[in-house]
Design brief:
single chain; mainly alpha; MetI-like fold; 18 helices
Amino acid sequence: MQSYICKRLLLAFPTILGILAINFFVIQLAPGGPVEQMIANMQGTGNALMERVVGSTSDTLSHASENLEPESILRSTDGMDQDLIDEIRRYYGFDRPIGERFFSMLKKYACFDLGDSFFRDISVAELIYEKMPVSISLGLWSTLLIYLISIPLGIAKAVRRGTAFDAWTSFGIVVASSIPAFLFAVLLVILFSGGAWLKLFPLRGLVSPGFDDFDTWHKILDYFWHMCLPITTLVIGGLAGLTMLTRNAFLDEMGKLYVIAARAKGLTQARILYGHVFRNAMMLVISGFPGVFIGIFFTGSMMIEIIFSLDGLGLMGFEAAMQRDYPIMFGTMYISTLMGIVLRIVSDITYTLVDPRINFEASVK
């Protein structure tokens, strides 16, 4: 297994390089980049934004901006002072060739230097570290609960195939999954967060004011009190796919000859399910774990973060895409790719724990 893990880690480098290269060059060709964003903002906000830009750039930009009259800021890009435009391009690094910018980014990423945000006075690494607790809370607990509920429920549905339990649970999870997550979140806010009915849970934030002064037990209670509604929203929306996948995987295995032979030998239903069927059926379920976790961790929680006022990675990534804040976009992409590769290796290791007959080392020789 060690040899397999080493080979997977070596393959991670070209994988990351390919993902970063494709996204870098595609995004660079998209209109409305950071230079255009800054020029548009300057044209729309006048001297107030100009002063902010002057304060963050070099003396050359400051000198160029001082020579501009307020009316000139409102003119089109073609009518703006070319020295100012060139200085903005230099500030964002767009005075260099695209290939040079790409390899410069790779060199920094090799040292885990994610650079600084274009429009926020903070480094990307600090931003990710700052937003990470919210996204970890949503992604970890939601994924854990989805698996803890969906797997037993899927097994129960497979064992009780065709019964009223199977029909009603199928109806319930299909209805729940058909409701968009943001609508379900709004419904929970209305019902349980003071919207119109009860006020049992807080509406915003990860913790309450004065959290640092709480004792350990109250910190734990306060944390889960704030997380209850957002996690419930994500769990309800994620149950259907994994539950039906587990059900169908078990039904497929239960119809095979080795199960029929086990029943003929007089083995109990529990021994057949958890001693033979479980290991084979869980292969498909385990293989989907990295995708589920990464999806909730980085993208699936964006609307939930907005509704419950949780400042996490999903909301930050959305704002960065709208502002064309490239360092944040590429930095979060780099981290998510690394996490996906690591989780894939963890998933493969879990394969061997569930079914020791699997030998990944033989498949890569």
